[in-house]
Amino acid sequence: MAIEGLEVENIIFPSTLQPLGSLKQLILGGAGARGLDINGTFIKFTSIGIYIEEDVVKHLAPKYKGKSGQELYQDESFFEDTLQSPFEKFVKVALLLPLTGVQYSQKVAEQIQVQNLYIDLQERSVQGFHATFKEENFPPASAIFFSVSSAGLGIAFSKDNAIIPEKPVVVIEDQAFAEAVLATIMCKDGVAPAAKLSLAERVSKWL
Fold first, then answer.
1. What whole-number distance in Å separates Cα of residue 108 and Cα of residue 86?
2. 8 Å CB contact between 186 and 199
3. Of all helices (H) and strands (E), which one includes residue 8?
């Protein structure tokens, strides 16, 4: 299985990497820019890379083998199955424009509510998420990192998106909340359709 890295808006996403505090090497599932149409102009805010364990591909193969990237992209169950598979995932969110931590955490929380895929989340997890971002500011070229596993949601920051911290600054020990955060990127009405399409196209070739 040939794994290639990607470059999105001058942000490098290597083909493999080791998540926060993990001993595993994850592969780049897909990457793309996130933006919004503002008065007719598409403004790009972040570049997002989604990393998965190679075993995720084997896990998905019985159900999705033979489907094209476009077919997978249009099938929300593909993204839900990827998200809920019992393997580690890792996300790199590289900033293209400045953003405050408060702005970022609020947008994520709002998106979780809009999607309504995960309800009745523990309030302590939501508050812990906001508290982790409260004092942070993200200039261009900085990055936010999320690790998603059975242990919960690991969060880390770096002023240089090419440098991945060895350990998370915090782990929110709530797997449902961890999946809810990742769902804002890669599930129904997710904020990163370009990264979703990239993931679908690449995985379809590996199945």
1. 23
2. yes
3. strand 6-8
Indicate whether this model's pTM tops 0.85: yes
Element (H, E) at 28: strand 26-38
Q: What six digits make up the tokens of 59? A: 């896990």
Angle between helices 76-84 and 193-206 (to 10 degrees): 80
At 111-130, the pLDDT tens digits run: 999 898 888 899 999 999 99
Residues 83-101 pLDDT 10s: 999 999 999 999 999 999 9
Bridge partner residues of 152 (DSSP): 149
Q: Is 64 exposed, middle or buried (0-12, 13-18, 19+ CB in 10 A)?
A: buried
The tokens for 111 are: 């998106």
For residues 74 and 105, is the Cβ–Cβ distance under 8 A?
no
Tokens at residue 204, please? Answer: 């379809």
Q: 166-170 — which CB contacts under 8 Å span 24+ positions?
A: 166/20, 166/21, 167/20, 167/21, 168/20, 168/21, 169/132, 170/128, 170/132
Evaluate whether 94 touches 47 at the Cβ level (below 8 Å). Answer: yes
Q: What tokens does 107 get?
A: 């947008």
Count of alpha carbons within 13 Å of 86, Cβ hemisphere only? Answer: 0
Distant-in-sequence contacts of 118-126, Cβ < 8 A, 24+ apart: 118/176, 118/177, 118/179, 118/180, 118/183, 121/174, 121/176, 121/177, 121/180, 122/174, 122/176, 122/177, 125/153, 125/172, 125/174, 125/177, 126/177
